[in-house]
Specification:
2 copies of one chain form a homodimer.
Chain A (H helix, E strand, L loop, with lengths): L1 H9 L7 H8 L4 H9 L3 H9 L3 H10 L2 H10 L2 H10 L2 H10 L2 H8 L4 H12 L5 H4 L6 E2 L5 H11 L8 E5 L5 E6 H5 L7 H4 L7 E2 L4 H11 L3 E5 L5 E6 H19 L14 H28 L1 H6 L1 H30 L8 H33 L7 H32 L9 H24 L5
Parallel strand pairs in A: 1-2, 4-5
Antiparallel strand pairs in A: 2-3, 5-6
Chain lengths: 458, 458
């Protein structure tokens, strides 16, 4: 097997030679094929894919990353697209379709069989990022009065079409979920026992309108392979499997991380996203932050006289406002993550504010003391801060304490306010909070200076 | 059932009343018990836990978050600790022990049976964050010459002790892994078929020394329930199951996000971590950044004459250096995440640098043009920038372009350099990069100003 893979990695496939190598390619596993296809340029990707048997084609397609799936859909003849879309599992199909532009989706839906089309439209009808979009209707459901033998025969017969047979669900005549079973319970039970003998009537289920974040946290907490999805009447609609949840968890975290860094979510690997898309995702926020930061120039213009009289104040300005920005970045990032993990909710704002006031005072005093000594020690050996250095030291101390306290407080409250207003809290990125604190921190610092230095330097 | 849960949520348990409620508590499911225990103060947590039957105790313990597990271990009598530790699954036990201080681990190891102790020490012997620490030896292995009936009988007999029976592994007489099977393959195959008839000799395995990040990416890519773990000789040592991987994935992402925000990883929920621990995790980096940022005061001291002559230069300083910091935060965050997802490696540095030079020029010119117009438009209506405003506009334009380019470049290279030196790339947080760019950006800006404004303002 290894020999064929090594060979396939080295050969350069072309329309002329692909037929003769087709047999060797078909001995590879879907996993080997995915790695092989991904290592090749687009033309060769398509050639390899078309040389596969239909069965292998479907299996390989499901493992391919989205952008390659899209490339391949663009070049396949219609009948192959139809076969492929009808064969992949409904949740993978929904994920694929929801990533495509709307026009293309309508086009692709035409290739589905009436039943598959109805199913896909139904899944696409649930709100984006909802559990409904992630679920598959391929599960096994049984009745409470069946025997273990009946269940096992049923699994043998129907198991091939089911997304997972690790978990089996008992429903009543109206489709209401009554209990969940692991397949192992039936394997180790006597064949003539009844399903109800094994029941404990405890189960965990997701609601079809739950959002992805909630689903991730439930899976993480309870470590399940799959979870049933129900509607308001507890009717079983489908299941969500852990593999889709793991993919969604990583995707959501990537989006959060990118937003915290001050860009829009990239929606693709860094090296593969086209340059202009990358710029579009980055320049927007940079400009917004730039316009916000322009207020610093205006605010400083307001203190221009003070700066002219005491240039020494300007020397410490970046130090003080960036310390406030750093404290704010820390606080906002901690709160964004705790919100995403469900550790805190907006309702906890009062306790969080309490905590961040104490944190801000502690952190502000720590930096304030260091700043005070920086000015004092330098002044003992040089004359750079003039005869009024003790007053400057006090200004730096109070400025740092105030700005860091303000940074912690506004950094922690910003994600909560955004969430409360229905926005994504991750938008209160480190650069966003830093900019906010730059403008306000500058005003705090110069106001303190005006008070402390009045009658001496100012 | 709900009635008992509702009741238990409302009652305040005390040493006096716990016995009489014990029966009702024992009707609850482990999941309900976890939620109940978590909602109560520590004293009650312990009371509830001790009132459970041993079987329920073990199941509930496995679902409890680490800090509650630790609380409970602290109050249980020795024989209960022994029972508990011997009963929970080996991978959960290893995870628990590796979170505890070393002295306590040695203490707890005493409670394990000789076999369980040998096993745990072996698992603890693998490097931290390695697949070896995550694996469990509770899997089912079969031989190629068995029949399907033999396999199913074996599953019925041994399945109870196994972490997962979704996947079953075929090994040879030396323990070398030959193939993996899903339980469904046996359920839908004729009973007299042989294992080798179902084999395809394709399998995916992790190496025992692989790190967690690699394991996460393999699970994410191939959507498996469990993966086998082998050593250099392909001997099957254990399996890793998806539930542990999901937990590790979320933990790693939390650590990365917190580091990107400029704190150390919290290792616990924001609201529950003690105040002083929270401060310790935050003040360290704030001080490091503060000391770094002090260089801005020194660098500005060097340009004090220029500032005194043209205070207008100081007005734009925060705007320019923070724009460089923002561009740097974007670049470093994108690179940190792409590294974690395995999309790029340190070897790609040349291509990344190339991409970020173009990005930096594009983003720098975009902001530079806006800055240029800001000064120009203001100057048409006011006189705040004096008669030399065109030169100031040019200084702002060149300064922004240069500093943003420098920010993008250093922000993208920093994570790669840290990774190359063996550090965690996430340490090059948004605040870290912003501080670095503040100091260097200031020098770039004033140097440009000195050249452009020489003979006029300076």
């Amino acid at each position: 097997m290894d020999r064929n893979l090594r060979f396939a990695t080295q050969v350069k496939f072309s329309p002329e030679n692909i037929q003769e190598f087709s047999e060797k390619l078909n001995t590879l596993s879907p996993i080997e094929l995915v790695d092989l296809i991904e290592s090749k340029p687009p033309e060769e990707k398509n050639l390899i894919f078309k040389a596969l048997s239909q069965n292998l084609e479907v299996q390989t397609f499901e493992y391919l990353p989205f952008r390659t799936q899209k490339e391949i859909l663009n070049i396949l003849p219609s009948e192959e697209i139809a076969y492929l879309l009808n064969s992949i599992s409904p949740d993978d199909r929904t994920t694929l379709l929801q990533e495509l532009p709307n026009g293309l989706v309508t086009h692709l839906l035409k290739y589905l069989s009436p039943e598959e089309r109805a199913l896909t439209i139904k899944l696409l009808g649930y709100p984006e990022n909802s559990v409904g979009r992630l679920m598959t209707p391929d599960y096994l459901s049984i009745k409470m009065d069946w025997t273990v033998k009946q269940v096992l025969d049923f699994v043998r017969e129907k198991g091939k079409d089911s997304e997972t047979i690790n978990v089996i669900y008992a429903i009543d005549d109206k489709g209401v979920l009554i209990d969940d079973f692991r397949i192992r319970q039936f394997l180790i039970a006597p064949l003539d026992a009844q399903v109800k003998d094994l029941a404990d009537y405890h189960f965990l289920a997701l609601h079809v309108d739950d959002n992805e974040e909630k689903a991730i946290n439930v899976f993480r907490k309870y470590g399940r392979v799959a979870l049933p999805v129900v509607n308001e009447k507890n009717v079983l609609l489908g299941i969500v499997t852990f593999d889709d949840i793991l993919a969604v968890a990583v995707k959501e975290d990537t989006e959060d991380i990118q937003k915290i860094g001050g860009t829009e979510a990239l929606d693709g690997p860094y090296m593969e996203i086209p340059f202009l898309s990358l710029m579009r995702k980055r320049v927007g926020w940079l400009i917004v932050l730039f316009l916000g930061e322009m207020l610093t120039a205006s605010a400083m213009g307001y203190f221009e006289d003070e700066i002219a009289k005491a240039v020494v104040l300007a020397l410490f300005l970046p130090l003080i406002i960036s310390s406030g920005g750093n404290a704010g970045s820390q606080a906002s990032t901690l709160i964004i993550r705790a919100l995403a993990l469900g550790e805190i909710t907006v309702k906890d704002w009062w306790r969080i504010m309490h905590r961040e006031i104490y944190s801000g005072i502690f952190l502000g005093l720590s930096l304030g003391v260091i700043g005070f000594f920086r000015v004092s020690v330098w002044s003992l050996f040089t004359n750079i801060y003039g005869i009024h250095w003790p007053l400057i030291a006090v200004t730096i101390f109070l400025g740092l304490t105030g700005v860091v306290l303000w940074g912690s407080l506004s950094g922690s409250m910003m994600p909560l306010i955004l969430k409360r207003l229905g926005f994504d809290p991750a938008v209160s990125s480190a650069p966003f909070v830093a900019t906010l604190v730059d403008v306000t921190g500058l005003i705090i610092y110069f106001s303190i200076a005006k008070i402390v230095l009045k009658g001496t330097l100012l």
